[in-house]
Design a protein that fits this description.
alpha/beta; 12 strands; 403 residues; Rossmann fold; homodimer; 11 helices; 8-stranded mixed sheet
């Protein structure tokens, strides 16, 4: 028992500097595109701060047609990034939507021009707490202004302007990506033909705020966090960030999926160890999720982006508290997808949006996909989900006159 | 924003030694009873270790009748203790079942003799990691053997023997208390007239193991934990323990209850702060839960007791993998209660037990209570729950010949 625990602690030890060197990667030599935005006019954020010239990193897949009408903006979730359809430059793993984006796939790169940018506040090249504050020459850390989903979308809009795209064929995303798709539709209805929020919500619920707060407290409790000023120190708050990731990861899965995948199966042993080592497979899995996450993500970004999600309340922001008013006379075509076993962004949250859209006679379709995969279903091979996406996209493309 | 954060961090700071002195309380001068058990024969634990003479702290309410037939053993949950029906000696708050236990209450102290003992591995006077190892004269810390729900129950049985009670009228408890009630029925069927598992399960699910693992990792990630050897140090792992408590607390409540109690209401402010201070009431509430918990609970006990729950699998332990076999020919009368909005120990887990009991033609009744209070409903004023308890207990008392 004690030996197991010591082995485990040794593996986690902060004396193993290879795991905790800061920062774990440089954003100056990432593959893909990076554009300086906000040069002509600074981006004024909801919190009141202004961002002058700032970098935004993005990737594209497929080719923009001559009429510039085939662009799809893919919005990533909390811990996603712009590497949606190619191996991740740090982890080497396939892109998070590699199964969705590509030739012949639902987001068909033979037909569409796919854009995916790292969100404002992120840590893969777009400005965020780990990037350099031009005013001081040092990383922003907590001097970075708190941002909102609206701010993310207004920054994305500068990118779309920069790319010379008058109107996006589609804005699509899951989870926090769905929040951005909804925000695009509410804020720039004339710049979006169709919005596809998947596993989303028009506001963050009290339970979701609570789970985010647990993650933030785990980071703040890590002495290596040091008030956010860890970028030039040998240690990063990897333990707190790993706990935050583990806590969040449980919420991305359903109990039936956890039961099906792991049940009470033991990890590489015939009987329990009567100790605190990872006896159960589900424990090993969670520890692995926590330990790999810290190599590709920044703890301060986790604080900022979870906060942006918590603040999201489309009705308050665009409808004086009434969700339908956020979409009055909207020309946008909406297609929503939810998953039966998603308890983090459950179907009633999508249905609430559908009801609001119905109230203003918007063009809306909605499909609930039967699956036990939980919130993470939008990242997985789900045949029903793919069929729904295909149908929704090809219907919209036909309406939009895309061949 | 930064000022808010600094204020918060100052309040949490480990330099404020008043909050982190170890240990926060002494178990040598707690009110109530404490008995030395295992003196004649050591308690042999599932993990193989033996506990010789060890303390068990308990409380009683009401009077044992002359025939010694009116005893009810109340089993507490993960973070509960023996102070079920009186102000807590550390926090001063009412006992965790004060509304259930007392004259004229469902567990009527005019009629029944109520016993509630601190579980093995606990931190309120019964032997556990914070108590002194007689072999070394120092606290056990992680030298304390890993324990199981079965071990807890076998220790309780020594207490019941000590009290001269041949047969308990009832063993009752919620959550981990329900696990103990089931274990009593399976292990000592002739010593229990009726078992009342509330909001319970016959095994810990993968999701529940996962949530526990997050809490344990939060404690292990706290540098003040120091491999469990913090008892003689000025700092205890209060930050890790607080995060563990916050993560767990979210799972005790339902989303509807969180929405009803907090929604997206702000804490003492008209607008969001655009910072990491507790803008939302639900955040303040969680932080409060975390910070008060650490004053009355021991981090190592949290590790041991969560582990005992993870290991619980009644079918594996008593039925060769078949739950019904754990109850073959049982004389025990079972009454189960579950709550509609409890997603941690949901109704299907209780129903699974009912099906197993039906398969062996046991005497079983089962009520599912409609409430939005989540898993914590068993600790709250729930009229339907109280009515069900009253009915079940008075029916059993009549059968048992208790007046």
């Amino acid at each position: 028992m004690i030996a197991d625990l010591i082995d485990y602690l040794m593996a986690q030890s902060t004396d193993d500097d290879s795991a905790v060197l800061a920062p774990p990667y440089s954003t100056t030599n990432l593959p893909g595109f990076c554009v300086e935005l906000g040069r002509e006019a600074p981006l004024r954020l909801a919190a009141g701060a202004r961002l002058g010239s700032f970098p935004m990193a993005y990737q594209t897949y497929g080719t923009l047609n001559a009429a510039r009408t085939n662009a799809i903006l893919v919005c990533h979730a909390l811990t996603g990034d712009q590497f949606a359809a190619e191996p991740h430059p740090i982890t080497g793993k396939p892109g998070w939507w590699a199964q969705i984006i590509g030739p012949g796939r639902p987001l068909d790169t033979d037909k569409y021009f796919i854009i995916c940018s790292n969100v404002l506040g992120g840590c893969m090249g777009t400005v965020g707490p780990r990037e350099t504050d031009p005013g001081t020459g040092a990383p922003y850390a907590l001097q970075f202004p708190v941002i909102t989903i609206g701010d993310m979308v207004r920054a994305q809009k500068l990118l779309i302007d920069h790319l010379g795209i008058e109107r996006l064929f589609c804005v699509i995303g899951g989870s926090m990506g769905a929040m951005q798709a909804l925000e695009w539709a509410a804020r720039y209805p004339d710049r979006v033909f169709c919005a596809m929020p998947i596993a989303g919500a028009a506001r963050h619920t009290a339970q979701n705020i609570a789970f985010h707060e647990v993650g933030r407290q785990a980071i703040l409790a890590d002495p290596d966090w040091r008030g956010g000023n860890y970028y030039d120190l040998p240690r990063r708050p990897v333990r707190g960030l790993a706990v935050a990731r583990m806590a969040a990861h449980v919420t991305y899965l359903s109990e039936p999926a956890l039961h099906r995948k792991f049940g009470r199966e033991l990890q590489d042993r015939g009987d329990v160890s009567y100790g605190f080592d990872a006896d159960f497979q589900v424990e090993s899995y969670l520890r692995y999720q926590g330990s790999t996450f810290v190599n590709r993500f920044d703890a301060n970004s986790y604080l900022y982006i979870t906060r942006a999600m918590d603040y999201f309340d489309l009705a308050a922001e665009h409808g004086d508290g009434v969700l339908a008013k956020a979409f009055t006379a909207t020309p946008v075509r909406f297609s929503l997808i939810s998953f039966t076993s998603d308890w983090l962004f459950p179907t009633p949250e999508s249905r609430r949006i559908v009801h609001a859209l119905n109230a203003v006679a918007a063009n809306v379709s909605f499909v609930e996909i039967e699956t036990d995969a939980g919130h993470d279903a939008f990242l997985l091979e789900e045949p029903g989900f793919f069929r729904a996406l295909n149908g929704m996209l090809s219907g919209a493309a036909e309406q939009f006159g895309l061949r």
